[in-house]
Design a protein that fits this description.
Elements: H1 2-7, H2 21-37, E1 39-40, H3 41-46, H4 52-72, E2 82-84, E3 92-98, E4 108-110, E5 114-116, E6 119-121, H5 124-133, E7 139-145, E8 162-163, H6 171-186, H7 193-214, H8 218-250, H9 256-278, H10 288-293, H11 296-306, H12 309-318, H13 323-334, H14 338-359
Parallel strand pairs: 2-8
Antiparallel strand pairs: 1-2, 3-6, 3-7, 4-5
Amino acid sequence: MLALGFVALLLSGCASIETGAGYYWQSVTGHLQLMRAAKPVQAWLDDPATSPTLRQRLELTQRIRDFASEALALPDNASYRRYADLGRKAAVYNVVATGEFSLELKTWCFPVAGCVGYRGYYDEAAARRFAATLPAGLDVQVYPVPAYSTLGWLNWLGGDPLLNTFIGYPEGELARLIFHELAHQVLYVKDDTVFNESFATAVERLGGQRWLQEHASDQARDEYRRFDARRQAFRALTRDVRARLLEVFEAPSLGDDERRQAKAAVMERFRTDYARLRESWDGHAGYDAWVERANNASFATLAAYEDLVPAFEALFVASGSDFPRFYQAVRDLSRHPLPERHDRLRQLALQDAQASAERLPSGPHAPMTPPAFTHPD
């Protein structure tokens, strides 16, 4: 229990911490229940009551888990060698918040974990109760999280388990999630959510691409291409919305009432553009709920997972596309003060973008940039 009390200070990458005995207690008991529900994957495979579908998925996860350590140099430990069915749709529920005219996440600061831009609960109702206590005027969001990382601190207790909350993901997404959470065990920097999540997202993208190329079936690759095409189109849309919101929030000539009206107009256009984009998705409705409840906090959370990813990908290439060298380069970078490490990453991304532009053909046959919201197919 003492060790689990310590993990209440550690939940990261996808969950968070708060001071106060009640909050720590729900963190301890929630994680303890999760650990108790988990048993070794082999025990599930040996159980005749395990369904064929679950059996197949568990076998797949172990191939992905082996690949993570052997090909991506991610930690080889107890994590993702056990499985638990929590009987709910999410591992935890995160609360995030921003100002009415801001895309900066409110942070909560704690020992060990440092300052993080979210606060996690194992019970959705508790998360919503806390969200309701936040000051009026904030944009607040509560969203389900399928997995979180304990940063490797509890591998001696069995590690982070596979969960029913993501076991059914398409193969490419399942691999990416496992790679993302293991990346948090490679490096976690206090007080820098954007750095941590962008690094883990870069690892999941790089590793997921390699897994699909080397091990996935044609069917899995096709399934992932369709899934990722929708995601990339949606991300292009949300990046454009973030840019327009920032223009509104930073315009010095606008008063609060004008800013509020302009913000509402941006959000109305966003939903119109999304509806048009969705028409080409053959009925796919996976983003509908997100769009319906979207606010500043929603867009700020996306930014935390995306903003520095191109820079980390450029750093990977600069490291010879070698994962151990890449991880060491990221560790070296993390030792710089926060503003400097972000500036260095953004400069690296800019240099990479300029180099890519110089490699493009010029003249009348140069490729044209497609409209932001056209379907990638």
